[in-house]
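Pasting two entries for a bug report.
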Amino acid sequence: MRTHTLGHSTLTVSALGLGCMGMSEFYKSGSEAESVATIHHALDRGVNFLDTADMYGPFKNEELVGRAIRGRRNEVALATKFGNVRGEDGSFLGVSGRPDYVRACCEASLRRLGVDHIDLYYQHRVDRTVAIEETVGAMADLVRAGKVRFLGLSEAAPGTIRRAHAVHPISALQTEYSLWTRDPEDEVLATVRELGISFVAYSPLGRGFLTARFRTLEDLPEGDYRRNSPRFQGDNFQKNLDLVAKVERLARDRGVRTAQLALAWVLAQGEDIVPIPGTTRSAHLDENLAALDITLSAKELAELDAAAPAGAAAGPRYPAGSMVHVNG
């Protein structure tokens, strides 16, 4: 397994991580037992970078990950997040970066995960009502207390990243990035590279769309949140299918799966980029890991750029209420 050291840290992570969100919420697939088995299989294959958050479940995903890594904690680079406020009933209650909230969330995450420290602690979304200096100051206190090792941000704007990094070194910036979400190429990637911050790419398979498994909306299970995602709605669905068909043809020419080609493209964008595709199935994990063995030529990269140029995906990434918290 190839590894990278994240940004301003001593944290060594696998070149491909595992996003655990879908094991507890949003995607309707897999059982908890299957998810735990997949995490174990990931660790066996050398995938040590596990990504969760307090809001997933809500709260249940950290417990699942905690159970899965029990007895194997020293094999794991463990990342979790705070900032998206959820009620016990699952309601979405906004975003908070208040220092007291930061401290309370960390204690709760440590308890659910069953660990004494978090390797990488992200602010999941930026609270525009609280100065980033206050939030990161509270996060830095957690580092000094030994409860957190390194800090990260998610979906933060370039100016916010700079201000945060001036308070305490930021080791990783997590943002959506894939062939159908190339927004970070505008300013974010240049900013983190200038500051020596690693980039963690979530949804590198476009919420599964870039696997070429979906042909109609009915291919998504009832209750799957993607049924309400703008890119899966109306005319957007067909336009995005047309985009994926181009990638699918290039994958066929190369003799690999569409998802593997899409992941290989993200990996080819730089050694400082770590994709964290999610899956609940060991077989899909193995398919994703095969992308690490794909080296794309300049011609193939140019063909993929032409097939899925920046801005080609139809529809925004999230519904309007969620998009306000992106690039904060």
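Entry 2 (this is the one that rendered wrong in the viewer):
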Amino acid sequence: MSFARIAVVGAGAWGTALANCAARAGREVTLWARDPAAVADMVATRVSPRLPGVHLDERIAVTGAIADLAHAEALLLVVPAQDLRAAAGGLARQIAKGIPVVACAKGIERGTHKFMTEVIAETLPNATPAILSGPSFASDVARGLPTAVTLGSADEPTAQALARALGSPTFRPYHTTDVRGVEIGGAAKNVLAIAAGISQGRKLGASATAALVTRGFAELTRFGRACGARGETLTGLSGLGDLILTCSSPQSRNFSLGIALGEGKPPEGKLAEGAFTASALAEMATEKSVEMPIASAIGAVLDGTLSVDQAIESLLTRPFRAE
């Protein structure tokens, strides 16, 4: 399992970054984009429109033809969480049996409450589902700045081989078989980052934000344990590590969305996965009798059932309790 040929489905900022990352690791990379105009532009300029100033590695072939993915030995599915089912379904006839399909989105499917590897297992039953998550901004990874992430697969040899195939001195994947733990960290931290952004946007102070992130991590941990995740995964890169990054930088779309909500401004319009995940996460927590007041409050704000001020009040007036 050398995975010499890797296909990346989705040529947004993250997909382009991972394509560059795989090429730097010595792989032969095919980058698929849906928009013919974007394909033509990237072929002509070797620059991604989503990552201005970042040049595509010479080992990356850009295509808009699904048939060009047929020879891939591993596939990175880099599309938004709510679009992953449709994207995976479109690949069913193109991929070889047993091929690893790595979800690179952080979220929970609305309506079904399915995690990304569950969606892959349903739509591509002959594939080996895997998940890539962790504290990583696309611009950092694309430029080759040092980054460490978690790569999870229920099949340990596959997880190890994928980590070796994508790894380089500046991109360090740590492998695990705790797929659910990796997925929960990535999904929950996006929702909590919106809360942290609201705190900053409302100018509640650094102390409030620190308390919010800490109590949010307690929620993430409770939910993870209820779903069978391992503690070391939740405190690792894909859990605590990603939470720290996402709750501390405006580069995070979820944090930026929260700032806009806190300031009473309209969101910028960029995709923030947490906006779609919040209600699903709150619903799943209720089903499992897991207390997640911060996540639930964010879900209510985004669904319009609570104002930002009402959500803040609901959290500040909760009963005092032991930590």
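Dev reply: Rendering is fixed now. As a check, the viewer should reflect this: Residues 179-201 form the longest helix (23 residues).
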